[in-house]
Amino acid sequence: MTTEREMRLGTVQETLLIPLYGRAVENRKEESALRDPRAEEIVASIDYDFSRFDNLPSLVGAVLRTALFDLWVADFLAAHPTGTVVEIGTGLNTRYERVGNERARWFDLDLPDVIDLRRTFFADTPRRTMIAGSVTDDAWASAVAAQAEGPYFFAAEAVLPFLEEGEVRHVVDLLAENFPGSLLALDTAGPGIVGTQDQHDALSKVEARMQWTCADPADLSAWRPGTRLLDSRTLTGLPAPLHDRLPVAYREMLSGLAEQRLPQVEEYRLNLVQLP
Ligand SMILES: C[S@@+](CC[C@H](N)C(=O)[O-])C[C@H]1O[C@@H](n2cnc3c(N)ncnc32)[C@H](O)[C@@H]1O
After folding, report:
1. CB of 236 closer than 6 A to ligand 1?
2. Closest ligand 1 atom to the C-alpha of 10?
3. What's residue 16's pLDDT?
4. Ligand 1 site, residue 154, Cβ cutoff 6 A
5. Which end of the chain has the lower number of beta carbons within 10 A, N or C?
6. CATH label, 3-274, candidates 3.40.50.300, 3.30.70.1140, 1.10.357.10, 3.40.50.150
7. Which residue ranges of the chain lie beneath pLDDT 70?
8. 42 lines ligand 1 (CB under 6 A)
9. pLDDT for position 6
10. 141 lines ligand 1 (CB under 6 A)
11. What is the residue-wise DSSP string for 115-160?
């Protein structure tokens, strides 16, 4: 059991338990969008009241988001098998287990207490390294640049909305200056989501709150000229290679949601950008 350690997780750090649980629950389903036996094992070994997240619709949303990030990373590694992937705010994500290969270089970055927890479940290898630090600090970028060559893919899944806008701008600058031309996958939440997050089914169960409101991910190009929005999706507009392999019940649920055009769904975007 990791009770003591887990209970000391900071406020924003605790949010990692939501997608972790989502993947564990998903793995138990007969028909699922994603398999993650490791998440199921980890959940079973952490003494935390995960039942607070049971049956929440956003758990499936988190799983679909992860599946799209997986697809983008898999596409990147197919094109660049010896490239470098950096999971920003990795939590207890298991993307490497799902889409990693033997030749890529992989880094998992998160705040120190998360990396301490992560080290109880994962070990560094010659090709896979955990880094403790904030994404807003320059030190991690120097460490990655010193240890691994490009091209680089940065996956910031469910991380940047928890930062202040000024911090997100700093992260974009940090990436563009240290890793020009690299790819960044990130999610963005519009005002209809950030403004109602106290009623959000999962976030209302924890203390952390989103800080950065992004009505339009194209704004990133204005922040840093030359930044290109390569793809931007809602959960109801997933790309065909992912959508078409989802269980039928999910496809029906998504088409029903698409008709309702709820701000909580339509203003949550999954984006792939190329930095200048
Ligand atoms: C909702 S969780 C997502 C975890 C993981 N990306 C996933 O999808 O399973 C948010 C994560 O962002 C991390 N995080 C928040 N602020 C951070 C910062 N300034 N630097 C690095 N990681 C941060 C948290 O510790 C947490 O692990």
Report:
1. no
2. 25
3. 97
4. no
5. N
6. 3.40.50.150
7. 1-8
8. no
9. 45
10. no
11. HHHHTTT---BTTEEEEES-TTSSHHHHHHHHH--S-EEEEE-S-G
**What pLDDT is attached to residue 14?**
94
**Sheet order of strands, 105-110 included:** 128-132, 105-110, 84-88, 152-156, 183-189, 268-274, 228-233
Q: Residue ranges per domain, the chain?
A: 3-274
- Tell me the per-residue pLDDT of 208-224, one tens digit each, with 9 for 90 and over: 999 999 999 999 999 99
Helix, strand, coil percentages in the chain from 3-state DSSP, rounded to 5 = 50, 15, 35
**Residue type for position 208:** A
Nearest alpha-carbon partner for 269 in 240, 229, 242, 241: 229
- pTM of the complete model: 0.97
Mutation test residue for ligand 1: of 159, 175, 268, the one with most atoms within 8 Å of CB = 159
